[in-house]
Amino acid sequence: MDPAPIDKSATIFVAGHRGLVGSAVVRKLNSLGYTNLLLRTHAELDLTSQSSVDAFFAAHKPQYVILAAAKVGGIHANNTYPADFITINLQIQTNVISSAFKHNTRKLLFLGSSCIYPKFAPQPIPESALLTGPLEPTNEWYAIAKISGIKMCQAFRIQHSFDAISAMPTNLYGPNDNFHPENSHVLPALLRRFHEAKVNNVEKVVVWGSGKPLREFLHVDDLADSVVFLLENYSDMEHVNVGSGKEVTTKELAELVKEVVGYKGEIVWDSSKPDGTPRKLMDSSKLAGLGWEPKISLKDGLTGTYKWYLENVAAQQ
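Structure tokens predicted for GDP-L-fucose synthase:
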């Protein structure tokens, strides 16, 4: 399709603008000169309430919608609150997508997650792997909701010619990430642990596993750049993977975090602890074929994220 630049004065509703992804999308749109962003906190607009969402769309009629709002959490949270994860995410998606169509939104972009893919998907994981096998049981409640979001976008496109597209990012990191000691993801958890070890002069940091598993990370500002790119350049049924295409072992990751933080002690690998899946990489060749590629290296991204952590998290401890 031909590129369709978004008018700088277009009304754009970014749902979930305070989260890791939504806040990056807002930063990107602001930097590009978009002046008419619709932003609402959860207190101002409860996305799980159909009547509230419909009234919001009726009043403001956003021309574009970026659906980055979701209830997210780690394995423990998914195991403890499965009903919340499936219900809240289905409610948010159903309300926003159906109201966007009803009130004549021009285009909607739904953001999912790489957890939609089968546990034993081929590596790297192509878009076509969706629904070809069983999911990872620990987060299937969240994954089922996200798959339903993709299918809802496709269904509205088929039945109503509604221009709804979906993007599935790989593991993300960056400013506004969750650095909580118990329930954060691997990268922010490592940053925090190495920082605290440095500050407290701890001689060694113990990291779980062998250090051999391969992982992929994408800076959230790169994702935000791809979101704008897809809104302007993609209009089709299939969801689009958004990854960096660069793999790093957990050992390389830990050593890079150690270097960025400036920790001088040693890393000890506890190989009695589980490694998780040996390799997880998205096949992002479809997006590359459209003409987009990431720009932020892992080291530069980590350096910026650590700076943000020092200014916004560590400073308040």
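The first helix runs from residue 20 to 31.
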